[in-house]
Amino acid sequence: MIKYHLITYGCQMNKSDSERIVSVLEKSGLKPTTQDRADILILNLCSVRQSAIDRVWGILRKTKNQTVILTGCVLPADKQKFQNKVDLILDIKDLPRWPEKFKIKNLIPDRIGDEIKNFPEVHPDYFSINPDHSSKFEAYVPIMTGCNNFCAYCAVPYTRGREVSRPVEDIIQEVHTLIIQGYKLIILLGQNVNSYKSKISNFSLFERSLAEGQFLISNKISNFKFQISKNTSVNFPTLLKLISRIPGDYWLSFLTSHPKDLSDELINCFKECEHLIPYLHLPLQSGSNKILKAMNRNYTATDYVKLIKQVKQIKPMVAVSTDIIVGFPSETKKEFEATAKLMKKIKFDMAYLAQYSPRPGTAAAKLKDNVLATEKARRRSALNEILKKTALNNNKKMVGKRIEVLIEKCNNKNECLGKTKNFKDVKINVAPAFRQEKIRPKGRSYTIKKDLIGQFAKVKITKANAWNLEGKLII
User: Where is the TRAM domain positioned along the sequence (predicted)?
Assistant: First the structure.
């Protein structure tokens, strides 16, 4: 039996891709194992950050007697460097054809290779492959791939290509299947979900059928079919509204939005869509208009502030997270201070702070990387200190509240971990009423009476920390 090990780098889109990779591998007869025992090592790469590339080189130096396959977001320049260091470089868009390529390269035995004939028919869209979700209650659902924005620092348009939206019917069917299966958190994915656009033929029938719950026919969504034409267009806010009409006990969220495309219609979805949680990830990247222009972001710091104010007017308890790059070429101390000032003003709940690293082939790679590494680290540290204060102050507002939490895991220390509706991590103390004693050879321990994992539970928040909350389970 051939065994594989899959390592994933990068964003949620790569993690979602890995769930489809696992599905293909296991239908091809391969079995998962640890990295050191694997016959085939698959690296789902992210070229967006140099740090991920460096980690891959580190793995390759230690790898012996293993077939190494590279996939994911790989820039042409990186692909060329890896060409003679790995056995195969496969495009994620060719995922339906991977079993065929495995057989050609003799990576799988003949008896398994023969079974590939029974593998689902090759489809040009790799999203047609049903993912093997790593969680039984949280799921990523890609709605599009690629990007047309060409931010100066970003590799995505060169690795994933231009924007391609999935058919709205396919997305609705995938989401509805997950809801039927009991999934509680569904996150729609795209490099820029705001750009989503799809077309259906009979929109009124489609909308009415969804509202009336006619998708569910003998528990088989596939029985409900649609015809696609060029008549009716569905944008991202409309997609959110349609999904929110699917009945069930679930939360809906999305990643990621671009500030230049964050429309009034989308902002109003936080009020109009019942299942949409009060959480928004909106990358800022810089608080300096000069740097934003150099990054080709197509908005100003003032534009960004207005958007956040608008969202908070619609949904006061919304939590906002962001991405920020420090040390972009030519970023002066004054321009960095503009970012620090804006962070203090907006009071982010979370920020993912990155030190700029040039990526070959991008527009910014032609610029001189003239901010010292030590200065980049200092700037990142300074922003992190600001974030600690704003995140803590925001979290303090939740102390004393009784809120709904999605339980993600529990341990033997009478604790569970979960997420709030506005995407904050919570450490939960499980009261004695919810515990049962177990006598073990080494002494007594406790387990939780009810299987709470993957369920919503009421929690009273008792303490606020910078990066999480603490609370007590009350129901």
Answer: 396-475
Residues 286 and 268: their CA atoms lie apart, in Å, by 26
Angle, helices 301-314 vs 333-346, to 10°: value is 10
CB-based burial, 393-405: b 16+ in 10 Å, e otherwise: ebbeebeeeebeb
Distance (Å, whole) CA 326 – CA 169: 40
Residue given tokens 């709605």 in the structure block = 143
| CATH number corresponding to 3-118 | 3.40.50.12160
Per-residue buried b or exposed e for 167-203, using 16+ beta carbons within 10 Å of the residue's own CB: bbbbbbbbbbbbbeeebbbbbbbbbbbbbbebebeeb
- Dihedral pair phi/psi, residue 300, rounded to 5°: -110, 170
Q: For residue 53, what pLDDT is reported?
A: 87
CB 68 within 8 A of CB 57: no
Would you call 22 helix, strand, or coil by DSSP? Answer: helix
Q: Is 234 helix (H, G, I), strand (E, B) or coil?
A: strand
Nearest to 241 by CA among 221, 213, 270, 261: 270
* Size of the chain, expressed as the number of residues it contains: 475
pLDDT digits (tens, 9 = 90+) for 202-225: 566 565 555 555 554 334 333 334
Query: For the ranges 26-40, 247-261, 397-411, which has the lowest average pLDDT?
Result: 26-40
The CATH classification of domain 402-473, taken from the options 1.10.3470, 1.10.10, 2.40.50, 3.30.70: 2.40.50
**Residue with token string 């515990």:** 435
Q: Break the chain into its structural domains and give their ranges.
A: 3-118, 135-277, 402-473
Q: Tens digits of per-residue pLDDT, 168-177?
A: 888 998 999 9
pLDDT at 102: 79
pLDDT for 204 equals 60
CA distances from 313 to 255, 269, 308, 310, 317 (A): 21, 13, 9, 5, 9
> Which CATH number is 135-277's, of 3.30.750.210, 3.10.50.30, 3.40.640.10, 3.90.1150.10?
3.30.750.210
Q: How far is CA 199 from CA 42, 161, 238, 285, 472, in A?
A: 36, 21, 11, 32, 47
Cα 346 to Cα 257: distance, rounded to the nearest angstrom: 17
Helix (H/G/I), strand (E/B), else coil: 360: coil
pLDDT digits (tens, 9 = 90+) for 235-264: 999 999 999 989 999 999 999 999 999 999
pTM of the model: 0.87
